[in-house]
Amino acid sequence: MNRFSKIVLTVVVITAALSVWSKPSAAQSTDKLTFWSRDSDQALVTTLVKAWNASHPQQIDVTILPGDQMLPKLATSIAGGEAPDMLAIDLIFTPALAANDQLSDITDLAKTLPNFATLSPSHVRLGTYQDKIYALPFSAEGSILLWNKDLYKKAGLDPEKGPTTWDEIYQNAKKITALGNGNYGYYFAGACAGCNVFTFIPLIWASGGDVISDDGKTMKLNTPEVKAALELYRKLWSEKLIAPGAQTDTGTDFLGAFLTGKIGMTGSGAFAISTLKNEHPEINFGVTYLPGQNGGKGSFAGGDNFVIPKGSKHVTEAFEFIKWLYTDDVQLEQYAKTSSLPLRTDLSKNKYFDLDARLTTNAQAMALGRTPYSLAYNEVFNDPNGPWLNMMQTAIFDGKVDEAIKAAQDSATQLLATK
């Protein structure tokens, strides 16, 4: 769950770009494009670039970087005039990168895409700053709720029906924990800030609440929906329905706890489906939406955005890659076929996902998903010492819900004021 020349395009430039697309130039045939990606996308990037290089004269060289090195290396490369031609970066960082003038304006190019209207709306929203588009989706995640069907059955629950309300989560967790033998009803990584943005905020969205205003300028933590969600987790924890290791889990066991077969329910993402199917076929699991207090559906739309950094010498050529990326063939054969979520909402149901309804559910969750928009996202939500995680830990593990909310609201509001 971790991760700045605006280019003014006239009609004449767009016409020239379209001409380049239709007939590769000598420069396209000989100059290699440089592409940086964070390591979490390594498998996808490697597969995509291999397919591109095999079918296009314009070749691409890939550099894989650890996620925590991406932002400082990007800033250094731009300052030194050595920016990569294109970049895949956590979508949450794109508003700040655009605001800091580190990304190329691709508004006019984006609007020439025949499938622009079908692209993941949350990715496009996070890639937009002051009505200009600086980023488009590259990889997608949608948070969902996993449940262990075998534990459900042993606890006398319907193994084919995941929870649809918070009370169902609570009641089901009690019955599963009552099985004993080290089984627990629920799990979350309690010391992981990003994990608890990904899987906790959707519970609030599904209940009609929010944590920050749409323009990213006002925190909204002091609301009934946020308080109720924290109280749900507090009740699960205080009644020992959550495995004790959750309190100190920094994310290393985010999925690992569920893989033991001893956890009834946990929030997760699309990556979990492939891992469970390919590496843990012994676990019979279901996938559903993260529910609201009295129903509703919530999901965090995560993943990476594709950007062209300021200083790229091949803006038009780089955009040709993204144009290719959104074609039916690539979205289906390179994404859906490998259980990766398509970036187009019109392809959430497809011939590959029809073979496993859990993948369709996850793709539809991503399509309805949301992502907080903030220039201070990292400081507010991702920082392990920031207001978001401090609020959750104080409320859930110490039981000081009102105190935790007030402190987080005040601290986060101060951070937003600096942007």
Top keywords for this entry?
419 residues; alpha/beta; D-Maltodextrin-Binding Protein, domain 2; 2 domains; five-stranded mixed sheet; four-stranded mixed sheet; 20 helices; 43% helix; globular; disordered N terminus
Given as residue ranges, the uncertain stretches (5+ residues, pLDDT < 50) are 1-29
Number of strands: 13
Main sheet: strand order: 2-1-3-13-6
CA radius of gyration is 22 Å
Average pLDDT metric: 92
The top level CATH class name of the largest domain: Alpha Beta
Number of helical segments with 4 or more residues: 20
Q: Which shape, going by the Cα principal axes?
A: globular
CATH superfamily of the largest domain: Periplasmic binding protein-like II
What would the CATH topology of the largest domain be?
D-Maltodextrin-Binding Protein, domain 2
| Span between termini | 22 Å
Structure description:
Helices cover 43% and strands 15% of the residues. It has 20 helices and 13 strands. It has helices at 11-22, 26-30, 42-55, 70-79, 94-99, 107-110, 121-126, 149-154, 166-177, 193-198, 201-205, 224-238, 256-259, 270-279, 315-325, 328-335, 357-368, 377-382, 387-397, 401-417, and strands at 33-38, 60-65, 86-90, 128-129, 132-133, 135-142, 144-148, 184-187, 263-268, 285-288, 290-292, 295-298, 301-307. It has a 5-stranded mixed sheet with strand order 2-1-3-13-6. The protein starts with 10 loop residues before the first helix and ends with a helix.
